[in-house]
C-alpha cells in the first residue's frame, strides 16, 4: 500500500530520524519536510578558484588549497592562542591565522587538502580564519546552514538532500505563473533545488530572489486579505453632525494646523463610510494628535455613539481624561476614566454607565478591553501610542461591541518597511507639520565626567523659571534597580539644588495616586526638576519644561530617546536635550551622534531600523513586524513593495481565491502579462 506523500509529513518519515533527532531538529524550528526544505542556507562556501588580486580588503571568502606546512600554535596570555599555517592555492601562498582555536591543529596536517572560511587581509595577503571547512571532494559550491549544538552541519545537509530526493515530486507551485514570468522567478521546485544545491553562485542568487519574493508575497497576501475583510465587515456608518463639530472646533484655544485639519477631514470621511475604518494616525511627538482624537471622538458622539480612548499607561490615561474634561467643558459630553486602579465601587458605577450609554467618552488603559466592559454603542475606539500595545490588544478592541471604527495613533514615525509589514492592513493619515511657534530642540551629548557642566546648565535654566526632566538609567532586567537608581539620583539632585529648587521623583513602583500627585505638582511648577524613570516616556505634556537630561542614554533605543526628548520643546522657549553617555559600542556611538544631528522622527526611525536590523524593530518586540525567514524587509524594501502591489492587485480581482490547504494559486493564466520588470 502506498501512502500519499506530502510536504507536511513529519521529519520522522526520513530514514535516520528517530525521536531524538526529531527533537534536535525541533530546536531549529524544523518539524515537517516543508520546514526542512525551506530551511535555507545562510551562506555558501564558494570553493571555486578566485583571483586573489580582485578580492577586496575585509571581504569574507572561502579558500581551498593544500596545507603547506605543519600548523604551529603559539600561546600567549592565559587563554589566547594563535595558529598559523601556509595554504598553497595554485601558485599562490596565503598565510592563514586562526585565533583562539588551538584544537584545529589536530585537524590539519601538511599536504592535506582543506578549505578555510575567513576574512581577507588584502595588504598582507593573508586570511584571518573563522572556520575550517571539510571540503567535499568535487563539490565546489556548498550550502552552509545555521545549526546549533544539537545537530551538525553535515547531518542537516544530508537530511535536506534525502528530503529533496524523496519529496521533489510533491513540491507544488505557490506563486501564480504570471508573476513568475513577469519577474523572471524560478518555479518552486527549481527554487528549492537551487537554494540547497546550486551549481554556481548565480543559480543560488536567482533562487534566493525567488524565495524572498515568495515569502514577502504570501505575507502581503494575508495582510491584504485581512484588509479586504475589514472593508467588507459590517462597519458603523457614523453620521456625525457637521455643524456641531464646527462649533466645537471654534471653542479650541488655538487654530488647527493645516495638517491637523486635513487628517480630521480624512478621518471623518472614513468614519462616515459604511465600511469599517481601521486607520493609523501618524504624527511626530508634539504634532497635536490628542486634539485630533478629541475632535473625531466628538464627531462620533454627535452621531449618538460612544467613543473610547485607550492609553498605554495610567499617567497618560489620567492626563488625557483631565485634558478632555477641559476641552469638552462646554459640550454635552460625559467622560469616565477607567484604569486598572479604579476602585471597585467606582468601577462598578462606571461599568453600569458605560453599558447604559450614560457616558459618551470612556478614557482608560487596557482596562477598557477587559471582558466585563460592555459598551452601549461603541462607534469609535482610539488607541494612543499604539506601538505600546500588542497586536492582540488592538484586535480585542476591534471586536468590542459592533466592530467600532479604529483610530490607532503613534508618534513613532513608521518607515515604509513597517508600514508595509506591521501595518499593511491599515489605512494611514499623517500629520506632517508641527504647530507654529515651536522652537527647535538642541541636543548635546556629554560624557559622564561632564555631568557637573550639565547641572550648571540646568541651574541656569531654572534661574530663568524653566523646569527640567532628569531621566534615570534603564536597567532592563530589573525594575527594582531602576527604582534604586532613580532614588539615588533624586537624593543627589535634591541636595545639589537645595534650598533654591524643589526636586520631585517619579517611578514605576509608586502608587497611582502618588504618581498622579507628583505629575500634577510638576505641572503646577511646585517642582522645578522631575527625576523619573522612563514612566514619563510617552505623552506627558508640560510646556514649561525645557530641559531633558537622560543618564546612560546609550542604553535606550533611538525611538525611545526620541519619545523622551519629545517631552520638551512644547512651549515658546527653546529647549535642550542632554544625553549623558559613554557608549562602548559602535552602535551606541552612532545612536548618540544621530540624536545630536536630527530631531526628525522619520530619519531617526529609519536609522533605528538600519542600526538594529529588522530583528528588534523600534526597540519593541511588540512592533508587530514578523520574522521573515529569507527576506530582509529593510534591505529588500523594493521587493517588499512590489510584493505588496502584486498582492493587492490579486486581492482586488473579482474572482480570486487562495486555497489554504492545497496552497496553489492556480487559475491566473488568463491574467494579461504586463511588460517584463525586474526585482532588483
Ligand atoms: P502628540 O501628538 O505628541 O500627542 P499633543 O497632542 O500632546 O501631541 O500636543 C502637544 C501640545 O501641542 C499640546 O499642549 C497641545 O495642546 C498643543 N497643540 C496641539 N495642536 C496645536 C495647534 N494647532 N496649535 C498650537 N498648539 C497645539
Ligand atoms: Mg500624545
Automatic annotation (TrEMBL):
It catalyses: Couples ATP hydrolysis with the unwinding of duplex DNA by translocating in the 3'-5' direction; ATP + H2O = ADP + phosphate + H(+). Gene3D superfamilies: Nucleic acid-binding proteins (2.40.50.140), P-loop containing nucleotide triphosphate hydrolases (3.40.50.300). The gene is recG. Residues 450-610 form the Helicase C-terminal domain. One of its GO terms (molecular function) is helicase activity. Belongs to the helicase family. RecG subfamily. Plays a critical role in recombination and DNA repair. Helps process Holliday junction intermediates to mature products by catalyzing branch migration. Has replication fork regression activity, unwinds stalled or blocked replication forks to make a HJ that can be resolved. Has a DNA unwinding activity characteristic of a DNA helicase with 3'-5' polarity. Signal peptide: none annotated. The keyword DNA damage applies. Residues 270-431 form the Helicase ATP-binding domain. This is ATP-dependent DNA helicase RecG. Its EC number is 5.6.2.4. Keywords: ATP-binding, DNA damage, DNA recombination, DNA repair, DNA-binding, Helicase, Hydrolase, Isomerase, Nucleotide-binding. It comes from Furfurilactobacillus curtus. SMART domains: DEXDc (SM00487), HELICc (SM00490). InterPro entries: ATP-dep_DNA_helicase_RecG (IPR004609), DEAD/DEAH_box_helicase_dom (IPR011545), Helicase_ATP-bd (IPR014001), Helicase_C-like (IPR001650), NA-bd_OB-fold (IPR012340), P-loop_NTPase (IPR027417), RecG/Mfd (IPR047112), RecG_dom3_C (IPR045562).
